[in-house]
Amino acid sequence: MLSVCQILEDIQAGRKTAAEAISQSRALIDARDGDIGAFLELADADATPGDGPLAGIAVGVKDIFDTYDMATRYGSPVFDGHRPPVDAAIVAMLRAAGASVIGKTVTTEFAFMHPAGTVNPRNRAHTPGGSSSGSAAAVAAGMVPAAIGSQTGGSVIRPAAYCGVTGYKPSFRLFPTVGMKTFSWSMDTVGLFAAKVVDAGRVASLLSGRDLEADPLREAPRIGLYRTSIWDQASPAMQNAIDSVAQSAADAGAHIVEIEEPDALSRGRDIHTIVQNFEAAMALGDEHRRHAAKLSDVLREALDDGYSTRPQSYDNGRRIARQARKAATALFNDIDVLLTPSAPDAAPVGLTSTGSSIFNRLWTLTGNPCVNVAGRVDPAGMPLGIQIVGRFGRDKLALQAARWLEETL
Amino acid sequence: MLSVCQILEDIQAGRKTAAEAISQSRALIDARDGDIGAFLELADADATPGDGPLAGIAVGVKDIFDTYDMATRYGSPVFDGHRPPVDAAIVAMLRAAGASVIGKTVTTEFAFMHPAGTVNPRNRAHTPGGSSSGSAAAVAAGMVPAAIGSQTGGSVIRPAAYCGVTGYKPSFRLFPTVGMKTFSWSMDTVGLFAAKVVDAGRVASLLSGRDLEADPLREAPRIGLYRTSIWDQASPAMQNAIDSVAQSAADAGAHIVEIEEPDALSRGRDIHTIVQNFEAAMALGDEHRRHAAKLSDVLREALDDGYSTRPQSYDNGRRIARQARKAATALFNDIDVLLTPSAPDAAPVGLTSTGSSIFNRLWTLTGNPCVNVAGRVDPAGMPLGIQIVGRFGRDKLALQAARWLEETL
């Protein structure tokens, strides 16, 4: 895979130019994407690299974000031929920081569940996960050093886990969602994909103007082993991976405590779908009203579910979400981060499903920062993702602990 | 002015058809808007009225919301000729409820401060206020019974006050902002204009599926007289109006207590601009990067201010906003609503400024529901708006108290 930090170092040291780094990604896409299907459209090849701290970094952008220079279809035939007049905020931020938005990556329909055509670069018979399928695959296949995705259920952490790359879902609203097609406004979150945790931290820092570098920790972290109340939905391979990672971390000096899931958090996980579908039904109101025939069955069912949800149920869901947020913050009184599965298992075989977000959706609802740490594999050699969850607003510590774990594994 | 409730009653009773009600608004627009300039574009005249509880209600929609069938310019030449592929969520909700989206109303540039051409129907030498200038004027001039606006500072309550109509800014996120051009995502709020408070409550109920009817109160409300820490910025006429309204309310049986502004709330008012400009700088990143020459000076200055704001100052502003929200909720322990000015004075003369949002921005930051109650006028006969502020989520009570006050005055 291509490392953001390495490329920036090479450019700084004069070993390559920003233009060469961008050309290299373009050549890799030309060579490899025919087999993967991560990209929908590439930017003009003659575009010169930008000016700024991310100059030389080619970034794939999930096609759920508006780009003025490339078609933006949100994964739906409703938007065939759509060309937004302006960039999404995160895209403008990338360009202002000097990054090259090299192409649009495949998303499932409106970043929901209906799968698209991208395959998993680790094994093409497997799904790359969704909904940020193309962004995860583009990084995993070594075509670009970074990619932008989004998560409303598990759409960053899960594909990162399935493809064996770093996925970083920041604290809610660290990055703006303006110009991103809305599915659920109280949960839609912009996220990043990169090779290693330090690479994700570097991009996040340079984009946000905040210190989010995954600097080495001075002491081993205090880790809460968080098996969750749905531990039985994790495969034996995943259960083993989590337990053995906890053991390795303890061996390396981490303080490990087992943390039972509070009721407020299991309730939060349970009402995610109510909040999501109610908001999606409003957000995609015109798509449903005028273009229902162009929507997938799975989406139409979710929207119908949203329309039949009473506002009182939604309001109650929002109250439960607020309580879950408070309970999530309280978990971190004596620990730095939680350790929990990124997904129930490795990537399923086939492209008819992008897998389950059951291990992710709670943290999207609460807005806690999450990092997928790659490194473990199942007996068949497919990646098993480990999820590090941080306290809301403590993204830097979450990234640091994730890096510590990545280097420990 | 046209009353939503009256029109719906007339249709129900068979005194007119929905189609006739829509035609009537169209004829009124044709006759009157040449002098007012509230509308930018009208919908196809042959469109049949919708089917639903709002059938027969012609609604003007601020041109900050996407409409698939009319140009959407957000008040900026950057978007000349822009035609969004789908409706904003609130527009789709209007149509789904049977309302006729009869035309797009004038907004200031990106709903910020640069004035547009609409005049005040009460006196054409005065500003109608902004940024929802056209929506307030369209209702005030009796052309439509309802209009949609938005508020990030004071853009619903202030123009309603200046034009002498009911303005209702609901609790934050009661109505979705999807498909509305973002200025500040943590404050942008969809609001309504109508003739009387009951009309606004009726539209809000039928659109949201919640009971927001401004039913008569069984007992006179408990009102907090909230002069605020910026009372000296209200004109003598406004100060007299507030004091005499409080006296009239007390005479009519209301329990009136004077409430001093807590520090947490004056601090909230002070940091509104920091939060707003930081978010606007990201939300309008591409507009600033590629189209700076097409932006007004006042907007460019606000965006430059946003770019020079450190993320730490913004984060601190968001913390102060959270504290202000808590403090705002605590105000309502022993009262139903607050009584406070809607604006410093009546509408200023001239069209070079849309007036000040100083009496509104705190409540946009905290997300409390606000209602402008019309009825009082200054010595020159221009409307002086009275603002009723309710507890977050208690919109019905705020509307009920506003109706009580409206009928008392």
From TrEMBL, chains A, B:
Which SUPFAM superfamilies does the UniProt record give? Amidase signature (AS) enzymes (SSF75304)
- Residue intervals of the Amidase domain: 48-397
> Which terms in the Gene Ontology molecular function aspect does this entry carry?
catalytic activity
InterPro entries on file: Amidase, Amidase_dom, AS_sf
Family, per the entry?
A: Belongs to the amidase family.
Q: What is this protein called?
A: Amidase
Per the UniProt record, the source organism is: Oricola cellulosilytica
